[in-house]
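Consider the following input, taken from an annotated entry for Diphosphomevalonate decarboxylase (Candidatus Iainarchaeum sp).
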Amino acid sequence: MKVSGIANANIALTKYWGKKNPELKTPYNSSTSVTLEGLQTTTTVEFDEKYTEDIFILDGDEYKTGEGEYDNVHEQLDLIRAKAGIEQKAKVVSKNDFPTAAGFASSASGLAALTFVAAKAAGLDSSVEELSKISRMGSGSASRSLIDGFAIWHKGEQEDGEDSFAEQIAPVEHWPEFRILGCVISKEAKKVKSRAGMKQSVATSPIFEQWYTNAEKDAQKMVELVKAKDFEELGNLAQNNCILMHACAMTTRPPVIYWTDGTMQVIHRVLELQDEGMKAYFTIDGGPQVKVICLEEDVPKLKDELTKLNMVHEIIECKPGHGPRVIEEHLF
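Applying the prediction step yields:
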């Protein structure tokens, strides 16, 4: 009943922003992503009669009932206990090798790792599709981290959410030279978490309907571009999709603005490099960090240019990665 594993974060190539059914965590639009080696969560889960309540420790800090992180983990464990027909409480210890809750999709890798490991520890023999649905309930983007390589998370049409899950567009081996450079602008947790920001946008942004209608078209187009390995079109689509998502967030009342001076510094430099002929494109999730989409051959030049920026503290190079896997070394 004790299992450890690793799950990678994913970066959305076309975003989702807004839940159509908050209870089932189903989105207004489909989204696409690439799972990344280089941004991972390690988690150990143990179900045992000796625990009188669930215990959750993340990056050395223990969370308690009433705190969002704890409640999210507890609810996810309840889902798995119900499916496995067990009642034992669990101890969960996790650690991220990148900034937590700062716009690097730590909720995606975290909930994917928790779902995958807890299901194994509970004795479930679930398919990847089923695990994607379960992880969606903890964090929408986590559904995509269950997938190797490039993925699409289908918005689904059914009221029960059973057709809202992620599946593979292309495996890791399809595009080995594909790269994401994660520019760390700040390691602080963001003030407005994505879940809260989305809720505000659904309720108040005057361009919300335009956003998700366009985003659905973008997701379907991105599937074609990934399969065709059309890098220039992919980069431009991802960049424009990102801008529209943040426009939706910024037109929310009160506005949800994740970009900082450091964010803008990277954006401007990437645009300048594009003008100079380089195929590099930016994308940004719910946080200040900028991810630069590029090909392996341009990584040295881009790293050199981006490290010159005084507000970039670190650059994390990532390539297409795999879904979760079990490891032998436990965290406790």
